[in-house]
Structure formats: C-alpha cells, structure tokens
Design brief:
By secondary structure, this protein is of the alpha/beta class. The protein has 9 helices and 10 strands.
Length: about 260
C-alpha cells in the first residue's frame, strides 16, 4: 500500500507540472516582461521621458528604453540595422529616408511642431537681440550641422534672410548646441524654443520673427522589424493622442 501511494503521488505531481507548463504564457505575450525601444530626436527628451513613465505605468511589465540623438544619426543607425521599435524624428526628411528604405511599418504620423530660438547665457554678454546679430564679427555662434533638422532650419532661415552665419562649431544634435551655450563656450546658439524652456535659468531665450519661415514638423512611426508591434502602436497612440499632445504642449511644442 505504501508503494502504491508513493507511485500515485508521483503520477499526480507529474500531471500538475505538465498542466502548469501548458498554461504558462509563452515568451513575448502580454504577461511577460517586455522592452520597447524608442529612438527619438534629442529635442524630445523631456516630454518623451514623461510619456515613457506614463506608458510603463499603464503597461505593467513593460520597460521603455529611450535613445535620444540627432534625427540624422538615428536614421543612420536604423538603416544600419540598429534594433528599435519606434522612431520619432524632428523633421520629415529623416523619417522619409527610413520609410523609403522600407524600414517603417504603416504611415508615419505627425504629432508636433517646433521652431528655432536663440539661446544665450543669462547675462547675454555679446548683446544678441536678433538673428542678424549672430553674424556679427567676433560673436561665437554655434549651430546644428546642416544634416540635422535644427541645422537645416537654420540654413533655410539664412537663405530667406540673406544673413550668412559663420559658426565656430556645428553640432550633431540640438542638445550639444545648448551645452556649448550653458558651458560658456559660445555667445549664442540656435536651438528650439522647447530647449530654451527646458534649460530654465541656465540660458536666456531670444525669439526672432524669421523663425516662422522654418517650422519643423515631427513624425513618429513603428519600425518594420519591431518584435513588439502592438506595444509600438500603443506608444504611438499615446504620443499622438490627447494625453501626449498635452505633455508636448506643456513642453512648448506646437500642434502638428
């Protein structure tokens, strides 16, 4: 009888283990821990960090990994096979590059807009007051490189105004431009109005009317090779939806 009870217990234990294995959620389902990788333009750092927290709170078990850089650099990384689920660009041109390469799933959605402003140290030692002042002899001006959205916008304004800038440095992202100003390495830098707002008292922002001639529109899309298509779509809906628009507006971004 003792041997019979032992054998029965072993059979029961085996059945329970098999049943548990059959009911376990397969890898990659909603019940498993997942990571959503988002490539986003450097100017989106503040609002996207907040939106990532909101997304994680509403999707337990999901971690949003944010990678910020210049849109041109991010587009290059994607074209070279870097793994990502979502791409948010600061311009239409770099989104078109990866879309034309077949790396985008569906149609990109425009979710925000932005314009340039002049950032100077709080005391404004070079007495900058206009876009033309950036071209004065002796003024150390820093801009984004031409292939970066903020740099392309600056070039567009130069062409429209006839003002030719001679920057002491051309940076790969708008945050790098801002860093040159806050560190005292530059008298002025061309950044977005949102970057001036995010910097707070570290810089003084100077608006200039010519900026209206170069409005940057921000598109977002899922990456075709994403293994988390549903999560990617949900994040895009958050960004482009009412909640996302409010966070972006609070950060100084305009409507699409």
């Amino acid at each position: 009888m003792s041997r019979f009870r032992t054998a029965a217990a072993l059979v029961l234990a085996g059945s329970l283990a098999a049943g548990a294995a059959g009911c376990a959620a397969p890898a990659g389902t909603a019940g498993a821990d997942q990571k959503l990788t988002v490539f986003a333009a450097a100017s989106l750092k503040a609002p996207f960090t907040a939106l990532a927290r909101d997304f994680e709170a509403s999707h337990p078990g999901t971690k949003v990994a944010l990678s910020f850089a210049g849109s041109a650099d991010l587009a290059t990384q994607l074209s070279q096979g870097a793994p990502a689920d979502v791409f948010a660009s600061a311009d239409l041109k770099n989104m078109a590059k990866i879309a034309d390469a077949g790396l985008v799933e569906g149609d990109p959605r425009n979710f925000a807009s932005n314009v340039l402003a002049i950032a100077v140290p709080p005391a404004n030692p070079a007495d900058i007051g206009s876009f033309a002042d950036l071209a004065r002899p002796g003024v150390k001006t820093v801009v984004c490189a031409a292939q970066v959205p903020c740099g392309a916008a600056a070039k567009s304004i130069e062409a429209r105004t006839g003002v030719t800038l001679k920057p002491v440095s051309e940076e790969s992202s708008v945050t790098d431009v801002l860093g040159k100003v806050t560190s005292g390495e530059a008298d002025a830098g061309l950044v977005y109005v949102t970057d001036v707002r995010a910097a707070g008292e570290k810089v003084k922002g100077i608006a200039f009317p010519e900026s209206a001639a170069a409005v940057n529109h921000y598109p977002i899309a899922a990456v075709r090779t994403s293994k988390n298509a549903e999560l990617a779509a949900a994040f895009i809906s958050l960004v482009a939806g009412t909640g996302g628009r409010k966070v972006l507006a609070d950060a100084g971004f305009g409507s699409p």
